[in-house]
Amino acid sequence: MEETPSFYDLIRLIEKAKDDKNIEGILLKANGNANGFGNSDEIRNALIDFKASKNSS
Questions:
Q1: Which of 55, 56, 53, 57 is nearest to 16 (CA)?
Q2: I need a labelling partner for 17 at 20 to 30 A (CA). Which of 23, 28, 36, 48 fits?
Q3: pLDDT at 23 over 70
Q4: How is the chain classified by DSSP, letter by letter?
Q5: What is the distance in angstroms between the CA of the first residue and the CA of the last residue of the chain?
Q6: Residue 26: is its pLDDT beyond 90?
Q7: CA distance linking residue 17 with residue 37, whole number of Å
Q8: Rg (CA), the chain
């Protein structure tokens, strides 16, 4: 069984992926959403930042 990263770890992993040239995209599997609006918005912003970093390369 795969370990689910904490919210903090998820944001860090997305930020780290921005600088990894071997990572072209991110797939999140979510079974429900236990995050509040604020956390969901932070995840969304991290993913937008990741996408922008890959488009500018």
A1: 53
A2: 36
A3: yes
A4: -PPPPPHHHHHHHHHHHHT-TT--------SS--S-HHHHHHHHHHHHHHHHHHH--
A5: 35
A6: yes
A7: 23
A8: 12
Name, in order, each residue with C-beta under 8 angstroms of 17's C-beta and a sequence gap of 6 or more: 23, 26, 50
Tokens for 31, please give them: 């079974």
Q: Are 2 and 10 in contact (CB under 8 A)?
A: no
- The CA distance from 8 to 5, in Å, is 8
Measured CA to CA in angstroms, residue 19 lies from 13, 26, 34, 39 at distances of: 10, 13, 28, 23
CA 25/CA 47 separation, integer angstroms: 10
Hey, what amino acid is at 48?
Answer: I
Calculate mean pLDDT across residues 19-47.
Answer: 87
